[in-house]
């Protein structure tokens, strides 16, 4: 939201990565899309939740319940039968236009570009995020660290088992 606001108000701001629904608002405001990140760099882990390993270890059961609830929420969001209700929630809570909210719900369910089923973590997408940070921000002296240094999917896997998978 802040990126779009900056692009609309500050003519010096020329480009930004925008997720739905803000990408739709940008288009309706006359801004041009340069394309989707995934088309340029391949997989991209656009969102996620992170905790320190020490906290995860001390709060494993809570973390696994949180992840299981998140997966259930993602399943609800992606289910075709919930799109109208999801659009209604977006309209009410984010004050989106109904047509933007409906299109957002459709975009979120697109297999290649939307949310990952069961909130699956994309390791290659995360590698690309690290590579971009290294290149653009200069983090890690310009050389991204190994993605595996930051990843422990054990909590996610146990959360899936709690859900019967």
- How helical, in percent, are the residues? 55-70%
Instruction: List the secondary-structure elements in sequence, H or E.
Output: HHHHHHHHH
Q: Alpha-carbon distance between the termini?
A: 35 Å
How many helices? The count is 9
Gross morphology is globular
Radius of gyration: 18 Å
Classify the beta-strand content into a percent band.
Answer: under 5%
Count all strands and give the number: 0
Structural class computed from helices and strand pairing:
mainly alpha
Q: Runs with pLDDT <50, length 5+?
A: none
Largest sheet properties: none
* Chain-averaged pLDDT: 91
Task: Explain this structure.
The chain starts with a helix and ends with a helix. With 165 residues, it is mostly helical. It has 9 helices and no strands.
Descriptive terms for the model:
165 residues; mainly alpha; 56% helix; globular
Produce the secondary structure layout.
Layout: H1 2-9, H2 22-28, H3 37-41, H4 53-58, H5 60-78, H6 83-94, H7 98-108, H8 123-137, H9 154-162
Helix pairs in contact: 5-9, 6-7
């Amino acid at each position: 939201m802040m990126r779009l606001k900056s692009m609309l108000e500050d003519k010096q701001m020329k480009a930004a990565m925008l997720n739905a629904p803000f990408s739709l608002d940008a288009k309706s405001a006359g801004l041009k899309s340069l394309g989707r990140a995934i088309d340029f760099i391949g997989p991209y882990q656009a969102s996620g939740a992170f905790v320190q390993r020490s906290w995860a270890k001390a709060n494993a059961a809570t973390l696994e319940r949180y992840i299981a609830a998140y997966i259930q929420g993602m399943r609800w969001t992606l289910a075709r039968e919930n799109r109208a209700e999801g659009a209604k929630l977006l309209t009410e809570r984010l004050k989106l236009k109904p047509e933007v909210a409906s299109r957002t719900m459709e975009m979120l369910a697109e297999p290649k570009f939307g949310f990952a089923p069961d909130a699956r973590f994309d390791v290659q997408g995360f590698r690309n995020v690290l590579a971009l940070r290294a290149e653009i921000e200069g983090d890690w002296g310009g050389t991204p660290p190994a993605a595996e240094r930051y990843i422990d999917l054990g909590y996610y896997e146990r959360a899936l088992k709690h859900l019967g998978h």
